[in-house]
Structure formats: structure tokens, C-alpha cells
Amino acid sequence: MNTLAPATSPSAARTLTDPDTPFAVVDIHKTRRNIERLAAKADRLAVALRPHVKTAKSLDAAALLHDGSPCPITVSTLAEAEAFADGGYTDITYAVGIDPHKLPRVLALLRRGVTLRILLDSTAQAESVAEASRQAGLPVPTQIEIDCDGHRGGLRPDAPAIVKIGRILHDAGCLDGVLTHAGESYFACTAEEQRLAAKNERDTAVTAAERLRAAGLPVATVSVGSTPTAHAADDLTGVTELRAGNYVFFDLVMAGLGVCRIADLALSVVVTVIGHRPEYGWIVTDGGWMAMSRDRGTAVQAQDQGYGLVLRLDGTLVPSLVMTAASQEHGTLTARDGAPLPDLPVGTRLRILPNHACATAAQHQGYHVIDSTRTTNTAPEILGFWKRVTGW
């Protein structure tokens, strides 16, 4: 199966020395390995896997998920849902609380034969969905968002409104099930904390589903997942599907939590050294926060990785060198713990590993694709270019 799109960048780049910097790079070997790891875990837990495509936002990357054929997916925007529907995906969950103004786009996808599930956590949203479904003569499959850890939206599993919302949706033929996301697991710093977060995520979702069933309401879907809990879960009894997205690329936050190794990070950004400030101990690059994002997710971890760790083009770490500051188009590299700065002349190309793969990927229109198992010199060959979906 060919999962690589042709190199469609304007430069028709052949190696990482060719495109103008900064640009995003994906290692297809590491991406495949990350995908296979979680797929095997889901198989062991006997639960369906519904990958979240919000990190890569790429049809080419998604082709690696299920041997090139469309599989059930999760999206974070309707633009993603529409693009993936165009690519043949027909089983999609839009896992962001629905804005009633967007329901015409939801209905348009349903009319195309796409099973598009939406999410909500209020009676106002449920009433809007029920009314739109009745007017269209087309039920909108809807999940109730459950709050398992106070991270963002959703209803607590004991909230009285859950049954009321369930009834509104059921009466309109729209009730599909419940969904929760253990967002606080991104701050669970040990394997045991992550295991407990996964258990709480499962228990919360199953409790909410049982409340609906006890009220005589059908619950087809019990959906859980985050990258840390998906990898930490050891029992998903009562759950029908597992969601995760960051795991496709991983990042320094996940490495800092111990969910993956730095060697598993599949996304990096190529930058060029454009100056030196020896009086400050700085190496200056052309990759600022517009290339890396403002995300500083490792700042709360035991090892703060600044804006990212530094690799040479061949993927080897530059010892002690960290991207510690960023302005819009400038990145500042400094040595950790008083180590000497390496000799990196102006024009040297480097790769930066990001804190948060989703945020960094969002800064780019696509990815130049390499395969680390095929690297034979310091300038890896570019095998293709994967476009990203943008917008909302």
C-alpha cells in the first residue's frame, strides 16, 4: 500500500536541506510504530479504537491507521469531518460541544451518508438538536458529554440533567450514548496516577451510561479516551470504544509523563541557525513561536524542555541544547546546566522536537515525510508531502 503523497511542496524537495525553513517533518517509521502500539493495546483490551485525527489532521497520515482503508475516527472540527468525508470516511465523531449554528453542516454530512455523531452537555443544546432533527426528518446521533475530572465541559455522572437530556434526545431518535475525556491525565506524572485516571475515566462513563439505561433509555456508545489513559488502561469493561490522537506523533509532554520515549517522537520542525549572541549564550534560529507554537506544556513537569529539544538533521540529539525562548520568527537555543554551546555555524539546519504535537502541527500547512530507517547520511531523503486540513 502506498501511503505517501507525492512531494507537492513548491520546491519539489529531495532532502531536508532543500525546503526553506522552518518546516514540519514527520518520520513515517515512528508514526507507524506508534499507531501499531495502541492498536495492539486496544486489541488486548477487546475494545474498538476510534483514533482522533486532530493532531495530524491529514488524510495521508490517517491512511496508516487501518491499512489504508477508512476506519472510525474522531475529529475536533467540522472542517476535519468534511475533509475526511470527502476522503471516504463515513463513521465520524465530532467531539466538541455542538454550536446549534453548525447543525446545518452536520445535517449536510448526514445526508451524504456519513454517520456523524455530535456532543453536548446541556438541555438547550439537546432541544436545538431535537428540533433540527425533526424539521429535517433526519435524526442526528448525539452523545452526552460526561465530566470525569473537571478538566473542561461535560456533566458529572450523577447530574440530574443527564436523564433529562437523554430523554429529549431519545424522543427525537437522537440519543447515541455518552463520551468522556480524562484531560487531567496530562498532569498524571506516574504510571500509577495514569492507571487510576484511566480507571476513573471508565468508571465515570459507565456510571453515566447505567443511569440512562436505568431510566429506560438506550445507550449504544460508551466512549472514553486520552493518550495517557489509553496507554495506561488495564480494564475497559463496559466501554465500547477508546479514543486518542496525540499518540500518532507523541511529543515532549507525553515523553515527560513516561507514556513514550523521546525516540518515539515522530514530529519535528526544521530550523536554520541565523545568528549567535555569545555574550548571552544564545544561538538564534529562524524558527520562533510561529513555527513551534506558544505551548510550554513541559514547564510543569520535572524536566522543563523549554520550547523543544534540539536534534541534528539525522535525528541525533544535540546534548544539553534546548530552545528556551521564542519570538514570532526567532528561536533562541541555549545550553543547559552551564554546558558549552556546540559549534553550529550560520546556515546549520537543526530539528526541534515540540512540547505539544497538536499545537506545533497547527502552525504548518503540511509535513515533509522521512523514514528514519532509511537515513544513510546527515540529510534524510524526503519521501513525500502530506497536506493538513485547516480551519473550523
TrEMBL record:
Q: Which Pfam families match?
A: Ala_racemase_N (PF01168), D-ser_dehydrat (PF14031)
Q: Name one GO molecular function term.
A: D-serine ammonia-lyase activity
**Which controlled-vocabulary keywords does the entry list?**
Lyase
- What InterPro entries does this protein map onto? Ala_racemase_N (IPR001608), D-amino_acid_metab_enzyme (IPR051466), D-ser_dehydrat-like_dom (IPR026956), D-ser_dehydrat-like_sf (IPR042208), PLP-binding_barrel (IPR029066)
GO biological process terms, semicolon-separated: D-serine catabolic process
D-serine dehydratase-like domain residues:
266-371
Highest taxon in the source lineage = Bacteria
Q: Which family does it belong to?
A: Belongs to the DSD1 family.
Name the chain's protein. Alanine racemase
